[in-house]
Amino acid sequence: MMEKFRLNNELFEVANKKITGKEILLKGNLTPVSDYELLIKLNEKGFEPVQLDEIIDLKTPGIEGFVAKPYKKLLVTLDDAPMYMEECFMTPNEILIAFGINTNNFFLKQLKGDVEIGYANDKNHKIAITNNSVFVSCEIEIIDIEEHCNNSNDDVPKGCKYKIKIDREKYVVNVECMTGREILTIANKIPVERFQLNQKFKGGRVKRIQLDEKVDFTTKGIERFMTLPLDQTEGSK
Predict the structure, then answer these.
(1) CATH topology of domain 3-70
(2) I want to staple 107 with a disulfide (CB 3.0 to 4.6 A). Which of 35, 41, 120, 121 is the partner?
């Protein structure tokens, strides 16, 4: 049975109930471990320091979790611009925002030697911040789903912006899924209850979309959307 513990509010699992302070930091990818102070949170006793070679029994009553803090601010570089951070864990979007970059237009990529880790599809992932962490920002691609539908047999990529066609107009959205209500709203079909939304697929199949029904723009074969005014009697049903 796996044992669980929290480090800076992030949940981790280990095979053994006994673990050293060094192993806790390594589990959180906080290296070199000598750069971090580790504290244990105990019920009613507050925080107490944990030495790197100190053995902690995770079954000990009263353990609420652990907190790691860098002894010095950590140097982080994004697009060759340096900044010192005090946090040990940050999401990709938190890092972008800290550098003043619009998260609607860019996603984060981490560089570890020859390895690149992209977070286009995992913007809420907690990244372990270490000294001299290196990141780059990448512009989010805009996928025209009508053109993609007609010109490619590949799946629609996730983690992008999407250009959708509603009647004769095209709109760029920042999310993969929207409800029928939201699609009608961006097309200014208000009040939405007075309009019907249809989704057209490649090959001619048409499906009616209910107001609270979710549409996934990465679904293969979606071509465009069409609206139809309803008479007041039908719209109020």
Answers:
(1) Ubiquitin-like (UB roll) (3.10.20)
(2) 120
DSSP annotation of 72 reads S
Q: How far from chain centre, in Å, is Cα 105? A: 14
Predicted structure pTM score: 0.72
Q: pLDDT digit string (tens) for 47-99?
A: 999 999 999 999 999 999 999 999 999 999 999 999 999 999 999 999 999 99
Q: How far apart are CA 55 and CA 17, in angstroms?
A: 10
Alpha-carbon distance of 152 to 38, in angstroms, equals 52
Domain spanning 74-139: CATH 3.10.20 = yes
CB 38 within 8 A of CB 54: no
Summarised one tens digit per residue, pLDDT across range 3-35 is 999 999 999 999 999 999 999 999 999 999 999
> What's the CATH code, domain 143-235?
3.10.20
C-alpha distances in Å from residue 78, one per residue of 35, 103, 159, 177: 21, 14, 20, 30
